Amino acid sequence: MKAVLCKPTPIKYLLMRYLSRLSPKIVYGHLCMAKLVELPEPKLINEEWVKIKVTMSGICGSDIGGLNGQESLYLEPYISKSFVLGHENVGIISEVGKLVKGLKAGDRVTAVPFLSCRQRGIKEICRYCNEGDYALCENVNEGQLSKGISIGWNKDTSGGWSEYFVAHYSNVIKLPDEVSDEDAVMIDSFSCALHAVMQNLPKNSDTVLVYGCGTMGINTIASIRALGLKNKLIAVYSREFQKKMALKLGADIMIHSRDDIFKKIADITKARIYYPQLGKPAIEGGVEIIYECVANSDTINNSLRFLRAKGRLVLIATAGALKNIDVAPLWFREISIIGSCEQGHERYKNSIMSTYEIVIDMLKEKKINLRQLVTHKFPLDKFKHALKTAVNKSDNAIKVALYNS
């Protein structure tokens, strides 16, 4: 089968980290750490697994972060040394293990990519998996699978940037006819944003800031409105097409990243702004909660200053080792910084549901329209063109996806 295989080494990774800061072109150029190759089709891990023929798979910011060397080295023990990329997926089941329940060949499905206790064949389930927080699994590198936190980062499962991957039946969800392939390929990234919002709901009176209007920021805005939240919602954007989509999905006030964001937020929230002789301003007042969807040193430094006392900073983007973060606002105004990883289970409609199931329910009820966010699609063998579009955000790109014809 055709597959996009990634084989990072420490030297390659550090080289890409340096070179990609000089030019983003290096990510999809001849030094790209991913190659289109021919591989054997993956085999079922055991009789509880299914094989899925890939229809479409998305390009995530974490995929780009892995290829340009910008993801944290802290995560290195949690990925295989060689793996097929792609964790945002939709496809058709082509083979079913004898112990699989509720699924059959021909079903159109998506698969939760995370590989936790149950998928790893671990009988004594860890406390987090037992509570439905599978993304926090304590056995993520143990059991019968190789190390690698999810489909798309694990050598045993293959990934969506290929013709086939395998998944444990407990992670596979049948798709209703109302949910298009484009909707389905967005479920993973949307569920990450939805999880962050549902785990950190604003109060009715809170002013909310979504920092960054890439895919995750757009998803966060849509999540807030899909949940029926009426909070005043400010969003910081960098491109005009992002502004248009954010307003369409429910943002109230847009601020360009090149504007004087401090003054604008102080004016909007009727806060006081103080200018030190050196360094960034301080705001006394500000917003109650920020969903951080960029997570670089500058945006996090700004966020800590935009929050009022006892405010919450929710990190949705995959922040890593960041330099020169001034944490004085953290203790001076008792600010909370909260991380949000992947998905889990949430309380919704008076029951406990997986985040994926909630997103599918929202799609069926037309509370969200995710297909409009899939702006570009490329055949698998054009993956470098797809990467170029995703990295440069050319042609008003939001979500870029690969497909098998």
Q: What is the overall number of helices?
A: 11
Query: Structural class, please?
Result: alpha/beta
Look at the structure and give the mean pLDDT.
Answer: 96
Give helix % range. 25-40%
**Rg calc:** 21 Å
CATH class category of the largest domain = Alpha Beta
Structure description:
The chain has 405 residues and is of the alpha/beta class. The protein has 2 domains: 242 residues, Medium-chain alcohol dehydrogenases, catalytic domain (Quinone Oxidoreductase, Chain A, domain 1, Alpha-Beta Complex), CATH 3.90.180; 139 residues, Rossmann fold (3-Layer(aba) Sandwich), CATH 3.40.50.720. The chain has 11 helices and 20 strands. Strands 3, 5, 6, 7, 8, 19 and 20 form a 7-stranded mixed β-sheet that branches. Strands 11-10-9-14-15-16 form a 6-stranded parallel β-sheet, sandwiched between helices. A 3-stranded antiparallel β-sheet has the order 2-1-4, with no helix packed on it. Helix 4 crosses helix 5, helix 4 packs across helix 10 and helix 5 packs parallel to helix 6. The longest helix is centred in the middle third of the chain and has 19 residues. The radius of gyration is 21 Å and the shape is globular.
